[in-house]
Amino acid sequence: MKITKVTPWLLLATAAYNFGRQGEYIFVEVQTDEGITGWGEVTTTHPVANRAVCAVLQQLDPLVVGENPFHIEKIWNKIFRRFTYMGSRGASTNAISGIDIALWDIRGKAMNQPIYELLGGPIRENIALYTHPDPNIGPDEAKRQAKEIAESGHEGMKFDPYPHMKEEDNGYLNGGMTTRGEAEANEITAAIREGAGPDMELMIDAHGRFDVPTTVRLARSVAPSNIHWWEEPVPVESPQALRNVRDQIDIPISVGERLHTRWEFTTILENDLADFLEPDVTWTGGISELKKISTMAEAYYLPIAPHDASGPINVLAGAHVMMTVPNFYKLETARHRLVAYDNFIQTPLDVRKGRLHLPDAPGLGIEMNMDFMRANSDEQFRGE
Ligand SMILES: [Mg+2]
User: What range(s) does the Mandelate racemase/muconate lactonizing enzyme C-terminal domain occupy (predicted)?
Assistant: First the structure.
Protein backbone atom coordinates (compact mmCIF):
# COMPACT_ATOMS: atom_id res chain seq x y z
CA MET A 1 0.00 0.00 0.00
CA LYS A 2 1.21 3.51 -0.81
CA ILE A 3 0.11 6.99 0.25
CA THR A 4 -1.26 8.97 -2.70
CA LYS A 5 -2.35 12.28 -1.18
CA VAL A 6 -2.57 14.42 1.98
CA THR A 7 -5.49 16.86 2.10
CA PRO A 8 -6.27 19.42 4.83
CA TRP A 9 -9.95 20.24 5.36
CA LEU A 10 -10.52 23.63 6.99
CA LEU A 11 -14.08 23.70 8.32
CA LEU A 12 -15.22 27.31 8.47
CA ALA A 13 -17.06 28.78 11.44
CA THR A 14 -20.80 28.44 10.95
CA ALA A 15 -23.78 28.58 13.25
CA ALA A 16 -24.16 24.82 12.84
CA TYR A 17 -21.24 24.13 15.14
CA ASN A 18 -19.95 27.45 16.43
CA PHE A 19 -18.18 25.64 19.13
CA GLY A 20 -14.48 24.92 18.64
CA ARG A 21 -11.50 27.20 19.04
CA GLN A 22 -12.46 30.33 17.07
CA GLY A 23 -15.28 28.25 15.53
CA GLU A 24 -13.04 26.48 12.99
CA TYR A 25 -11.85 22.87 12.69
CA ILE A 26 -9.01 21.25 10.71
CA PHE A 27 -9.29 17.64 9.59
CA VAL A 28 -6.58 15.79 7.65
CA GLU A 29 -7.33 13.18 5.00
CA VAL A 30 -4.63 10.72 3.93
CA GLN A 31 -5.50 8.64 0.85
CA THR A 32 -3.87 5.44 -0.37
CA ASP A 33 -3.70 3.50 -3.63
CA GLU A 34 -5.76 0.66 -2.13
CA GLY A 35 -8.83 2.78 -1.45
CA ILE A 36 -8.31 2.98 2.33
CA THR A 37 -8.50 6.54 3.63
CA GLY A 38 -7.36 7.67 7.08
CA TRP A 39 -8.46 10.77 9.00
CA GLY A 40 -6.67 12.99 11.49
CA GLU A 41 -7.40 16.31 13.15
CA VAL A 42 -5.53 19.41 14.33
CA THR A 43 -6.91 21.51 17.17
CA THR A 44 -7.40 24.99 15.80
CA THR A 45 -6.33 28.29 17.33
CA HIS A 46 -6.41 31.70 15.63
CA PRO A 47 -7.75 31.81 12.03
CA VAL A 48 -4.35 33.02 10.77
CA ALA A 49 -2.54 30.14 12.50
CA ASN A 50 -5.15 27.66 11.18
CA ARG A 51 -4.39 28.69 7.59
CA ALA A 52 -0.64 28.43 8.22
CA VAL A 53 -1.08 24.84 9.46
CA CYS A 54 -3.23 23.98 6.42
CA ALA A 55 -0.57 25.46 4.13
CA VAL A 56 2.09 23.24 5.76
CA LEU A 57 -0.16 20.19 5.35
CA GLN A 58 -0.74 21.08 1.70
CA GLN A 59 3.00 21.07 1.00
CA LEU A 60 3.79 17.68 2.55
CA ASP A 61 3.03 15.45 -0.45
CA PRO A 62 6.71 15.29 -1.55
CA LEU A 63 7.64 13.81 1.86
CA VAL A 64 4.84 11.26 2.17
CA VAL A 65 3.39 10.35 -1.23
CA GLY A 66 4.72 6.94 -2.26
CA GLU A 67 5.52 5.92 1.33
CA ASN A 68 3.99 2.81 2.91
CA PRO A 69 1.37 4.15 5.38
CA PHE A 70 2.27 1.32 7.80
CA HIS A 71 5.74 2.86 8.26
CA ILE A 72 4.50 5.43 10.77
CA GLU A 73 7.78 5.95 12.67
CA LYS A 74 9.68 6.53 9.43
CA ILE A 75 7.17 9.07 8.12
CA TRP A 76 6.95 10.84 11.52
CA ASN A 77 10.70 11.31 11.69
CA LYS A 78 11.03 12.18 8.00
CA ILE A 79 8.65 15.15 8.38
CA PHE A 80 9.94 16.18 11.83
CA ARG A 81 13.59 16.40 10.77
CA ARG A 82 12.74 18.50 7.71
CA PHE A 83 11.36 21.20 10.01
CA THR A 84 14.05 21.37 12.68
CA TYR A 85 15.67 24.47 11.16
CA MET A 86 12.45 26.47 11.41
CA GLY A 87 11.69 25.11 14.89
CA SER A 88 10.41 21.63 15.52
CA ARG A 89 7.34 22.70 17.48
CA GLY A 90 4.04 24.33 16.62
CA ALA A 91 2.82 24.26 13.01
CA SER A 92 5.16 21.41 12.06
CA THR A 93 4.14 19.13 14.95
CA ASN A 94 0.48 20.09 14.39
CA ALA A 95 0.79 18.83 10.81
CA ILE A 96 2.69 15.70 11.89
CA SER A 97 -0.01 15.00 14.49
CA GLY A 98 -2.82 15.13 11.94
CA ILE A 99 -0.96 12.80 9.59
CA ASP A 100 0.13 10.40 12.36
CA ILE A 101 -3.48 9.98 13.54
CA ALA A 102 -4.62 9.35 9.96
CA LEU A 103 -1.86 6.73 9.48
CA TRP A 104 -3.01 4.87 12.60
CA ASP A 105 -6.58 5.04 11.24
CA ILE A 106 -5.37 3.50 7.96
CA ARG A 107 -3.42 0.81 9.82
CA GLY A 108 -6.46 -0.12 11.91
CA LYS A 109 -8.75 -0.24 8.89
CA ALA A 110 -6.27 -2.35 6.90
CA MET A 111 -5.87 -4.80 9.81
CA ASN A 112 -9.58 -4.72 10.72
CA GLN A 113 -8.76 -3.72 14.32
CA PRO A 114 -9.55 -0.71 16.52
CA ILE A 115 -6.39 1.35 17.07
CA TYR A 116 -6.23 0.50 20.78
CA GLU A 117 -5.84 -3.17 19.87
CA LEU A 118 -2.65 -2.22 17.98
CA LEU A 119 -1.20 -0.23 20.91
CA GLY A 120 -1.02 -3.08 23.38
CA GLY A 121 -4.71 -3.81 23.82
CA PRO A 122 -7.29 -2.39 26.22
CA ILE A 123 -6.74 -2.24 29.97
CA ARG A 124 -10.13 -0.57 30.63
CA GLU A 125 -13.60 -0.84 29.15
CA ASN A 126 -14.33 2.84 28.56
CA ILE A 127 -12.86 6.30 29.01
CA ALA A 128 -13.72 8.62 31.90
CA LEU A 129 -14.31 12.15 30.66
CA TYR A 130 -14.08 15.53 32.30
CA THR A 131 -15.90 18.42 30.72
CA HIS A 132 -16.73 22.13 30.79
CA PRO A 133 -19.63 24.46 31.43
CA ASP A 134 -20.14 27.09 28.71
CA PRO A 135 -17.56 29.91 28.83
CA ASN A 136 -18.32 33.48 29.96
CA ILE A 137 -21.36 32.79 32.13
CA GLY A 138 -22.34 34.32 35.46
CA PRO A 139 -22.61 32.56 38.82
CA ASP A 140 -26.29 31.57 38.54
CA GLU A 141 -25.94 29.94 35.13
CA ALA A 142 -22.59 28.39 36.18
CA LYS A 143 -24.27 26.80 39.19
CA ARG A 144 -27.12 25.46 37.05
CA GLN A 145 -24.75 23.96 34.46
CA ALA A 146 -22.50 22.48 37.16
CA LYS A 147 -25.51 20.66 38.59
CA GLU A 148 -26.48 19.45 35.12
CA ILE A 149 -22.93 18.16 34.53
CA ALA A 150 -22.89 16.36 37.88
CA GLU A 151 -26.26 14.76 37.12
CA SER A 152 -24.96 13.59 33.72
CA GLY A 153 -22.46 11.36 35.56
CA HIS A 154 -19.26 13.35 34.95
CA GLU A 155 -16.94 13.32 37.95
CA GLY A 156 -14.68 16.16 36.83
CA MET A 157 -15.13 19.57 35.21
CA LYS A 158 -12.90 22.46 34.23
CA PHE A 159 -13.40 26.17 33.64
CA ASP A 160 -11.61 29.52 33.42
CA PRO A 161 -13.51 32.02 35.57
CA TYR A 162 -11.10 34.95 35.08
CA PRO A 163 -12.30 37.88 32.93
CA HIS A 164 -10.44 39.02 29.82
CA MET A 165 -8.04 41.95 30.42
CA LYS A 166 -8.02 44.77 27.90
CA GLU A 167 -4.22 44.60 27.41
CA GLU A 168 -4.65 41.08 26.03
CA ASP A 169 -6.38 42.43 22.89
CA ASN A 170 -2.97 43.06 21.36
CA GLY A 171 -1.49 39.76 22.47
CA TYR A 172 0.45 41.48 25.24
CA LEU A 173 0.50 39.59 28.48
CA ASN A 174 0.46 42.06 31.32
CA GLY A 175 0.23 39.05 33.60
CA GLY A 176 -2.12 40.68 36.08
CA MET A 177 -5.72 40.39 37.24
CA THR A 178 -7.79 43.09 38.91
CA THR A 179 -9.08 42.47 42.42
CA ARG A 180 -12.57 42.86 40.96
CA GLY A 181 -11.86 40.13 38.36
CA GLU A 182 -10.47 37.94 41.12
CA ALA A 183 -13.59 38.43 43.25
CA GLU A 184 -15.90 37.66 40.29
CA ALA A 185 -13.93 34.50 39.52
CA ASN A 186 -14.09 33.34 43.14
CA GLU A 187 -17.84 33.91 43.14
CA ILE A 188 -18.30 31.86 39.95
CA THR A 189 -16.08 29.09 41.30
CA ALA A 190 -17.99 28.93 44.59
CA ALA A 191 -21.27 28.76 42.62
CA ILE A 192 -19.91 25.89 40.53
CA ARG A 193 -18.82 24.05 43.68
CA GLU A 194 -22.28 24.54 45.15
CA GLY A 195 -24.02 23.29 41.98
CA ALA A 196 -21.67 20.38 41.36
CA GLY A 197 -21.54 19.14 44.95
CA PRO A 198 -18.59 18.19 47.15
CA ASP A 199 -17.47 15.12 45.17
CA MET A 200 -16.92 16.80 41.78
CA GLU A 201 -13.25 17.31 40.86
CA LEU A 202 -13.01 20.98 39.87
CA MET A 203 -10.14 22.08 37.66
CA ILE A 204 -9.27 25.69 36.88
CA ASP A 205 -7.49 26.68 33.66
CA ALA A 206 -5.29 29.77 34.05
CA HIS A 207 -4.48 29.51 30.31
CA GLY A 208 -0.87 30.65 30.79
CA ARG A 209 -1.99 34.27 31.26
CA PHE A 210 -0.50 35.32 34.57
CA ASP A 211 2.86 36.32 36.00
CA VAL A 212 4.21 34.51 39.05
CA PRO A 213 2.86 36.72 41.88
CA THR A 214 -0.57 36.99 40.23
CA THR A 215 -1.03 33.27 39.62
CA VAL A 216 0.10 32.51 43.19
CA ARG A 217 -2.35 35.10 44.57
CA LEU A 218 -5.27 33.78 42.49
CA ALA A 219 -4.56 30.13 43.29
CA ARG A 220 -4.44 30.82 47.03
CA SER A 221 -7.58 32.92 46.92
CA VAL A 222 -9.70 30.30 45.09
CA ALA A 223 -8.33 27.34 47.08
CA PRO A 224 -11.26 27.23 49.58
CA SER A 225 -13.45 25.86 46.74
CA ASN A 226 -11.26 22.71 46.80
CA ILE A 227 -9.52 22.81 43.41
CA HIS A 228 -8.27 19.54 41.91
CA TRP A 229 -5.72 21.17 39.60
CA TRP A 230 -4.42 24.61 38.57
CA GLU A 231 -3.70 24.44 34.84
CA GLU A 232 -1.00 26.37 32.96
CA PRO A 233 -0.30 28.77 35.87
CA VAL A 234 2.18 30.84 33.82
CA PRO A 235 3.12 31.24 30.13
CA VAL A 236 4.76 28.13 28.73
CA GLU A 237 8.17 29.65 27.90
CA SER A 238 9.67 29.67 31.41
CA PRO A 239 10.17 26.46 33.42
CA GLN A 240 11.69 28.60 36.19
CA ALA A 241 8.46 30.58 36.52
CA LEU A 242 6.60 27.28 36.89
CA ARG A 243 9.12 26.23 39.53
CA ASN A 244 8.51 29.45 41.45
CA VAL A 245 4.74 28.90 41.38
CA ARG A 246 5.05 25.27 42.39
CA ASP A 247 7.11 26.22 45.43
CA GLN A 248 4.42 28.66 46.59
CA ILE A 249 1.02 26.97 46.07
CA ASP A 250 -0.59 23.83 47.43
CA ILE A 251 -2.96 23.13 44.49
CA PRO A 252 -1.70 20.38 42.13
CA ILE A 253 -0.42 21.72 38.79
CA SER A 254 -1.32 20.51 35.29
CA VAL A 255 0.54 21.50 32.11
CA GLY A 256 1.13 20.15 28.64
CA GLU A 257 -1.26 21.38 25.96
CA ARG A 258 1.38 23.83 24.70
CA LEU A 259 4.22 21.30 24.91
CA HIS A 260 5.16 19.59 21.67
CA THR A 261 6.75 16.13 21.47
CA ARG A 262 8.40 13.94 24.10
CA TRP A 263 11.42 16.26 24.33
CA GLU A 264 9.45 19.19 25.77
CA PHE A 265 8.00 16.96 28.49
CA THR A 266 11.44 15.92 29.75
CA THR A 267 11.92 19.34 31.41
CA ILE A 268 8.65 18.94 33.30
CA LEU A 269 9.36 15.38 34.39
CA GLU A 270 13.01 15.75 35.33
CA ASN A 271 12.37 18.92 37.36
CA ASP A 272 9.15 17.83 39.07
CA LEU A 273 7.19 20.77 37.68
CA ALA A 274 3.68 19.25 37.46
CA ASP A 275 1.30 16.71 39.01
CA PHE A 276 -0.77 16.04 35.86
CA LEU A 277 0.22 16.13 32.17
CA GLU A 278 -2.32 17.21 29.55
CA PRO A 279 -0.78 16.73 26.09
CA ASP A 280 -3.01 17.44 23.09
CA VAL A 281 -2.82 14.49 20.68
CA THR A 282 -3.36 16.81 17.70
CA TRP A 283 -0.54 19.20 18.63
CA THR A 284 2.12 17.18 20.42
CA GLY A 285 2.84 14.64 17.66
CA GLY A 286 -0.19 12.38 17.27
CA ILE A 287 -1.08 8.96 18.59
CA SER A 288 2.53 7.73 18.41
CA GLU A 289 3.79 10.64 20.50
CA LEU A 290 0.95 10.58 23.05
CA LYS A 291 1.72 6.91 23.75
CA LYS A 292 5.41 7.70 24.25
CA ILE A 293 4.77 10.72 26.51
CA SER A 294 2.31 8.63 28.55
CA THR A 295 4.94 5.96 29.08
CA MET A 296 7.52 8.56 30.14
CA ALA A 297 5.02 9.95 32.66
CA GLU A 298 4.23 6.43 33.89
CA ALA A 299 7.87 6.06 34.92
CA TYR A 300 7.40 9.14 37.16
CA TYR A 301 3.97 7.98 38.44
CA LEU A 302 2.24 10.98 36.91
CA PRO A 303 -1.29 10.71 35.46
CA ILE A 304 -2.14 11.75 31.90
CA ALA A 305 -5.28 13.68 30.97
CA PRO A 306 -5.31 14.40 27.21
CA HIS A 307 -6.37 17.93 26.23
CA ASP A 308 -9.29 18.57 23.89
CA ALA A 309 -10.41 21.93 22.55
CA SER A 310 -11.46 20.51 19.21
CA GLY A 311 -13.60 17.84 17.57
CA PRO A 312 -14.44 14.15 17.39
CA ILE A 313 -11.09 12.86 16.07
CA ASN A 314 -9.16 14.68 18.79
CA VAL A 315 -11.35 12.97 21.42
CA LEU A 316 -11.21 9.55 19.78
CA ALA A 317 -7.46 9.61 19.07
CA GLY A 318 -6.75 10.46 22.70
CA ALA A 319 -9.24 7.84 23.88
CA HIS A 320 -7.69 5.04 21.80
CA VAL A 321 -4.31 5.71 23.42
CA MET A 322 -5.80 6.02 26.90
CA MET A 323 -7.49 2.63 26.53
CA THR A 324 -3.95 1.21 26.74
CA VAL A 325 -2.31 3.57 29.27
CA PRO A 326 -2.17 2.55 32.97
CA ASN A 327 -1.53 6.09 34.28
CA PHE A 328 -4.69 7.65 32.83
CA TYR A 329 -6.72 10.24 34.78
CA LYS A 330 -9.59 11.53 32.60
CA LEU A 331 -9.93 12.74 29.02
CA GLU A 332 -11.18 16.24 28.29
CA THR A 333 -14.18 17.12 26.15
CA ALA A 334 -14.35 20.84 25.49
CA ARG A 335 -18.12 20.98 26.02
CA HIS A 336 -20.54 18.79 27.93
CA ARG A 337 -22.94 18.61 24.98
CA LEU A 338 -21.10 16.99 22.07
CA VAL A 339 -23.76 17.50 19.40
CA ALA A 340 -21.44 19.85 17.49
CA TYR A 341 -18.82 17.08 17.18
CA ASP A 342 -21.49 14.78 15.78
CA ASN A 343 -22.04 17.04 12.73
CA PHE A 344 -18.77 15.77 11.27
CA ILE A 345 -19.29 12.03 11.69
CA GLN A 346 -21.92 9.55 10.56
CA THR A 347 -22.50 7.91 13.95
CA PRO A 348 -22.64 10.05 17.12
CA LEU A 349 -20.02 9.55 19.85
CA ASP A 350 -21.31 7.16 22.51
CA VAL A 351 -21.13 8.99 25.86
CA ARG A 352 -22.98 7.54 28.84
CA LYS A 353 -22.68 8.60 32.50
CA GLY A 354 -19.62 10.74 31.78
CA ARG A 355 -17.81 7.96 29.95
CA LEU A 356 -16.90 7.52 26.30
CA HIS A 357 -17.50 4.04 24.90
CA LEU A 358 -15.26 3.54 21.88
CA PRO A 359 -16.72 2.16 18.66
CA ASP A 360 -15.54 -1.36 17.85
CA ALA A 361 -15.19 -0.56 14.15
CA PRO A 362 -11.60 -0.65 12.81
CA GLY A 363 -9.19 2.29 13.03
CA LEU A 364 -10.60 5.30 14.85
CA GLY A 365 -14.01 3.67 14.40
CA ILE A 366 -15.79 6.51 12.60
CA GLU A 367 -16.77 7.58 9.08
CA MET A 368 -16.76 11.27 8.20
CA ASN A 369 -19.95 12.97 7.00
CA MET A 370 -18.57 14.05 3.63
CA ASP A 371 -21.68 16.00 2.56
CA PHE A 372 -21.35 18.17 5.67
CA MET A 373 -17.58 18.49 5.20
CA ARG A 374 -17.90 19.62 1.56
CA ALA A 375 -20.67 22.08 2.34
CA ASN A 376 -18.76 23.81 5.15
CA SER A 377 -15.05 23.71 4.24
CA ASP A 378 -12.67 26.15 2.56
CA GLU A 379 -12.14 25.06 -1.07
CA GLN A 380 -8.67 26.58 -1.41
CA PHE A 381 -7.15 23.96 0.87
CA ARG A 382 -8.95 20.80 -0.11
CA GLY A 383 -8.22 21.53 -3.79
CA GLU A 384 -11.33 19.96 -5.24
MG1 LIG B 1 -5.99 24.46 28.97
Answer: 139-252
